[in-house]
Design goal:
Mean pLDDT: 79
Number of helices: 3
Largest sheet: 6 strands, antiparallel
Radius of gyration: 19 Å
Oligomer: single chain
Strand content: 35-45%
Shape: globular
Structural class: mainly beta
Order of helices and strands: EEHEEEEEHEEHEEE
Distance between the termini: 19 Å
Number of strands: 12
Length: 142
């Protein structure tokens, strides 16, 4: 890891609550940051060494709750940010219905993803009792 003119290799850092151990966001712009909350570890991969420095995504993540799939997070500047709202219930993606999904089926959905191999996906959600269908376009995120 390089901080300013200093290069640091194979060092462990520990941050304690209440401490002033802050790194500015500009520092992280050259790294992919992977947080493992279970193991309480942070991994930084320098972008120039990562190989593929970008990837495309539809711009949202999901959550299984109350026997349904819900929009959990939305990436700013993605096509999802123009249409989806947090807590929209996903009832269909392309030709696959998710209206009555089990937790076990959601695990497969989460593991396998919902990428249809194209740059667009049709998503139908319910919001406040009404059904909406949107076309989302993959957005380059990194």
């Amino acid at each position: 890891m390089k901080i300013g003119n200093h290069t640091v290799n194979n060092i462990h850092a520990r941050v304690k609550s209440g401490a002033g151990n802050n790194l500015g966001l500009a520092f992280f712009k050259n790294y992919r940051v992977i947080l493992n909350w279970n193991k309480k570890k942070l991994r930084l991969i320098e972008i120039t060494k990562a190989g593929n420095d970008s990837y495309k995504n539809y711009g949202f993540s999901t959550l299984f709750e109350n026997e349904g799939i819900y929009v959990n997070r939305i990436v700013e500047m993605s096509s999802a940010s123009q249409f989806l709202k947090q807590e929209d219930k996903i009832v269909r993606i392309d030709d696959t219905s998710y209206a009555n999904i089990t937790e076990e089926d959601y695990c497969g959905f989460y593991r396998d993803g919902y990428d249809n191999g194209t740059d667009t996906v049709s998503i139908t959600v319910t919001r406040e009792g009404k059904e909406f269908t949107f076309q989302l376009i993959k957005t380059e995120l990194l």
